[in-house]
Amino acid sequence: MKLFSKDRNFYRQVLILALPIALQSLITVGVNMLDTIMVGSLGDDALSATSQANSFINIYHIFCMGLGMGASVLVSRYWGMKRAASAKIYSEDGIEVYNDPEADKQTEAAERALKQTVAMMLRITLVLATLFALATLIMPGTLMKMYTEEEEIIRQGTIYFNYSIITYFFLGASLVCTIVLRSVGQVRFPLLVSIGAFFVNLGANYAFIYGELGAPKMEVAGAAIGTLIARVFEAAMICGYLLFKDKNIGFRIKDMFMETRSLIGEYLRISIPVLISDGILAIGNNSVAMVIGHLGFSAANAITSVTQMLSTVFIQGVCQAGAIVTGMTLGEGDREKTMKQGYLFFGLGLALGTVSAIFIMLTSEPIIAYYDNVSEETVEIARQLMAAISLIIIFQGTNSIMTKGVLRGGGDTKMLMITDNIFLWVLAIPLGIVAGFVFKWSPFVIYICLKSDQIVKMIWAFLRLRSGKWIKKITTGKQAEQTE
């Protein structure tokens, strides 16, 4: 199998899916960068407070990403099954060619499984949002103390939390619904919504952080309000489209209450390991943020994290495209084609990771220069972290496309959950803690140690790809199996 190919149809299919997803991610990063720059003008304490408060909110964000991506494994597979079954009945013009009761049955089973998956995903999202909102409401100060011992940063972070309590519900709903729409090829509308949210966030931040346009000057609290307003806009548009306009899935409000017991076994087997894996990843990233915070690198990390997100937006787009393409191809029953595509995605990961590394090296100094109100020490630490990120991103880019894209799309979610745990908690975090608190090495070396799991996982992902064991069978549930 080849890592690179002249298969234009493959690259075109990936580009059509990945580009809108990447542009949407770029806009999201742009929103985060705007927040960082605007709050950064208030000083180191405000920048650290919002960054560390968002470290906790990002745990919920990654849980929702895991929940949405887990559901998308099923959705893309069922969408592929539905298309394959429909092709047996209808011509390309949509005209019924012949009556095939078996194909009718397969189409109906795939459609029902699609809706059941979305219903369970939304229910779990609502529960998660409630839990995180309660934690933020009851103990905001305690949450901030996980990241820092500085009283002023804790005080400002608590203020940010107080205005972010209901944000979880809107963030979760828009995020998981966006991922589901992407799984059936609906990538343009979420992009347009993100563009709108960017300008909504920009205007709200300008008004409430600085007290412009007749709004009160609220500084850190204003940043939280700006984000909330943008999230409300996103949720209204995305969820409204899914519930009232989309025809591919056909999910409507009444389907929230549909019976899902027949699919629970399959949903738990495929989706829950993704939720657990990404949830543990969120906690791991949070632990990394704690280590960085207690080492005094918070402000520098806030600067570099935006750069890292900018450099990986297209990688993330290809990652999700990998899961969608893999799921659809397997849903259509073509295993050989899936293996070939897997190797091509690995090659894409290497290429894009290298491009991202070059991008970071070329743009690190101009980006650091924007933060002219931070200390010289913060600038020097940021430079070292940028250098470390430019090295790690080559491995991380390839690893992300394979583990969060191709292998996950093949249904290998349980094995991915196990390996994520082992490489993160047994290798990366202990190594980073020893490097930072015992040997007190440089920020460059500490960051490499904290991200060492990315190097090992890339090697493991290639070996797993070669084995072919990552391709798993997925059914449409117990009822469908019983009636076959």
Task: Summarize the structure in short.
This protein has 484 residues and is mainly α. Helices cover 81% and strands 0% of the residues. Helix 2 packs antiparallel against helix 9.
Characterization of this structure:
This protein has 484 residues and is mainly alpha-helical. The protein has one domain (8-483). The protein is 81% helix and 0% strand. The chain contains 17 helices and no strands. The protein has helices at residues 8-40, 44-87, 101-138, 140-145, 151-162, 167-183, 188-210, 220-244, 261-294, 298-311, 313-331, 335-370, 376-409, 413-438, 443-450, 452-467, 478-483. The radius of gyration is 23 Å and the shape is globular.
Q: Bin the strand percentage.
A: under 5%
Distance, first to last CA: 36 Å
Radius of gyration: 23 Å
Described by strand count, sense and barrel closure, the largest sheet is:
none
Q: What quaternary form is this?
A: single chain
Count of beta strands: 0
Global structural class: mainly alpha
Shape: globular
Helix content: over 70%
If you average the pLDDT, what whole number results? 84
Write down the secondary-structure element order. HHHHHHHHHHHHHHHHH
Count of discrete structural domains: 1
Detail the poorly predicted runs.
479-484
Q: Helix tally? A: 17
